[in-house]
Amino acid sequence: MDFLLAPGPRRKRSTPPSTVPPARRSGGESGPSPHRSTFRPDIEGLRAVAVLAVLAFHAEIPGLAGGFIGVDVFFVISGYLITGLLVREAITTGRIRLGDFFSRRARRLLPSAAVVLAAVAVAGAWLTVPLRRTDLEYDVLASALSLANWRFISQQTDYLAAGPEQSPLLHFWSLAVEEQFYLFWAPLLAVVVLSVARAVRRGRAVRSVVALVTGALVVGSFALSLHWTDRAVSLAYLGTPSRVWQFGVGALLALLPWHLLRGPRPLRLLCGWSGAVAIGWCVVAYDASTPYPGLAALVPTLATAAVILAAIPGRGERNVQGPYGIGRLLAGRAPRALGRLSYTLYLWHWPVLALAEARLGTLGWPARTALTLAAALPALATMRWVERPLRRSRTVSELPRRGLAVGVSAIVLPVALALVVGTATLHLMGPTTPVDVKGLPPGAASGPSLLGASGASATDGPVVPNPAQARKDFPPDQGCQVAPEVTRSPECLFGAVESPDRIVLLGDSHAGQWFSPMLAIAAQRGWALQELVKQGCPLPKLAVDSPQLGRAYRECDVWRTDVLERLRTGPKPRLIVIASLNRYTEDDELLAVAWEKTLKPLRAAGAPIVYIEATPVPGTDIPACVSGAPDGAAACAFSRAEAVPADRLARRIATGAVPGVRSIGVNQVLCPGDGPTCPAVRERIVLYRDDAHLTNTAAVVLTPRLERLLTAAGTDPVRPAGSG
């Protein structure tokens, strides 16, 4: 984000006096605009408020969970300062020199960011396990290319729930948004200026046209923000289109003729202090559960605008701070000093926290606060020896191409480091091609071993799949596990799709992990398999929130009703296999009622129903752990008590309290014995692809066991003799 505008040295340009219209020289309303090029010390102090809020949020200081709104403050400041700078240039010279503009931005922002990215790329090779290291190097690439926000959107990252397993470069999303705004905004204004270059009163024309364009963008972007906040929280929070309106609010501050007003002093005081109080209120009152950005983002955005507006000089005024204004407080020596440091401090604090937790484990807020304070040391060093010298260098600033060359170099350095470290790590981890399940050893149909006698006896050799493969070892169901925003599953028929007989696999992603075994069982009988699975959607009729959507999971309720109706009115299945994560509620009574609301219409379908007990939930990234301990996977074992709680539905089925449903389970082989831990790897098979789901490889190996359990439960899906 742009933590600017202490103006750096600029190339001198001579303009013949005769080419400057009198209106521009006089400072009239069509002359150089709002709001003069005078340095605003209060805005430098306002940056300090913004960065302190973000630091408090990331340090998890109690009571300051809304500190993430500091980024919104930065966006408004940037919109105000950058638009004012561009419009002043346009009015004064009749054009916007894009080369100069991007040169200044490049030498101001990119070198410091490159230092942090290079440090993270190198430190990540030492402090992170190999699989996380590859992810981190991809993050370095995306951040260097100003695409970090779109990378994190593609991963459905929840910024407000950032934890120890999040990227050390997650905070670069806001820098990417800002840089994308610059790439879009400056050329757009340049085009607008060309369209009004010959206007008689150019100052008024430029401001009017740009204000109209800005107003339209603000309205459109805010509407999109509301829409995405309700449907895709990651896209709403991290996406550039849904954040443009906040830059636009700042831009309107610079465009509208506030400088012609002579607001009463009490009104200015009220405006400034109300804005400051509102910013503080957001820091205290907001938290990760606040739907954001959405309507909630209006408060910090307009509050920041109020603070800036309170100190815009009116007609004939030079200083409007006054002894009691918020601007006087913000312009103090300490806030300004921190404001000058805000950019490099923002760059350094999160990598320090994230890499420390990657090495030491989860830390409490006192330790996180101490680390955040310690980040001021590299921040000061970067500001003193990288940022200031380049910004003040006459050699670099003399010609735009030199500043642009500095920017390009600042991109190339971290990209090169990331490619070198990432390539070496990928080579270390082995192939990333999908596992050939046909070459797997046969699984055991019974007994304590996961594999049959031939496979269980081989204890030496690499794990299968390797960690890089395990991360991507999903069921080959062609995307039939429908996304949170989808309300209806497609037909999703596999195997003998023309057969009138089929097995239905129904539930959430914990049902989807059994796709390959169920397809194999159906194929052996010449039947079809129909998969009706929705991510994060409990099969029992429970009202839940979706982390991906950031609100009540209404789509889940619609989807559940739809699939139950399809099963009731459609062809009768030969077998219905259900599974669901058993952690959507801790209320046993509520869960029992919710299951009955789902099982009652399922029984009406007239087919046998089999419930597969919930499998262990490790709660930690198993492939990443194994990548750091390839020869000692025992180090990745996890707590049995936390991972395998009592399955309440299976317990009720065993007592006969759930008629028409049989229960089977494989936890005896996934977590054998009665010790305190469960293994992450058994007989060289990596069991989990993430922190909760089985690898497809493990599911395939379990196929013979599942088939035997179905037979033992009296629900073996075998076509009766003589049936047509």
Features:
724 residues; mainly alpha; 7-stranded mixed beta sheet; two-stranded antiparallel sheet; 6% strand
Topology of helices and strands:
Layout: H1 22-26, H2 41-59, H3 70-93, H4 98-127, H5 130-144, H6 148-154, H7 172-195, H8 202-231, H9 233-238, H10 244-255, H11 265-285, H12 298-310, H13 326-330, H14 333-360, H15 365-374, H16 376-392, H17 394-397, H18 400-429, H19 453-456, H20 467-471, E1 481-482, E2 493-495, E3 502-507, H21 509-512, H22 515-524, E4 528-534, E5 545-546, E6 551-552, H23 554-569, E7 575-579, H24 588-603, E8 609-612, H25 622-628, E9 638-639, H26 640-643, H27 648-654, E10 661-664, H28 667-670, E11 677-678, E12 681-682, E13 685-686, H29 696-701, H30 703-712
Parallel strand pairs: 1-4, 3-4, 3-7, 7-8, 8-10
Antiparallel strand pairs: 2-4, 5-6, 9-11, 12-13
SS element count, helices: 30
- What share of the residues does DSSP label as strand, in percent? 5-15%
What is the rounded distance between the termini?
Answer: 69 Å
- Report the radius of gyration as a whole number of Å: 30 Å
Helix-strand makeup class: mainly alpha
Mean pLDDT: 88
Oligomer: single chain
What is the share of helical residues? Answer: 40-55%
Question: What characteristic shape results from the CA principal axes?
Answer: elongated
> Which spans have pLDDT < 50 for at least 5 consecutive residues?
2-34, 719-724
Q: How would you sum up the major sheet? A: 7 strands, mixed
Number of strands: 13
